[in-house]
Amino acid sequence: MYSSDLKYLEIGEGFFDKWPNPPSPEKHRQILENSYKAIVAIDNNKIVGFINAISDEILSAYIPLLEVLSQYKNQGIGTELIKKMLYELREFYMIDLLCDEDLQSFYGKQGMFKSQGMVIRNYKYQSGRYK
């Protein structure tokens, strides 16, 4: 089951796999709630996969995160999440996403194409910005 309503849903443990300093479940919920759009995959009221987008709501949208818990991988959940998000963002001029090279073929199958980009990564804030 897929939803944009996060209320009453538990965030499953195991997201941000291999991140040295992952966001807490509370920060993870804030990420999803503060996004322009967030879609989650649900199993027994637990979030087992998610995708989010941020946007200026005029021309551009950016997809920063797509994750599926390891025990739910290879079941088409990631594919369904990206398809649903691309449909939600279909009226934007640009939809951008950065990913590791080994994931480019996955996103290519969804109609996205390779581009070039530049990034800054402040790893001391990987678990979330301090307030």
Automatic annotation (TrEMBL):
Alphabetized UniProt keyword annotations: Transferase
Keyword Transferase set for record: yes
Domain N-acetyltransferase: 1-131
Record keyword Transferase present: yes
Tree of life domain: Bacteria
GO MF entry, a single one: acyltransferase activity, transferring groups other than amino-acyl groups
Pfam families associated with the record: Acetyltransf_1 (PF00583)
Protein name: GNAT family N-acetyltransferase
Organism name: Tissierella pigra
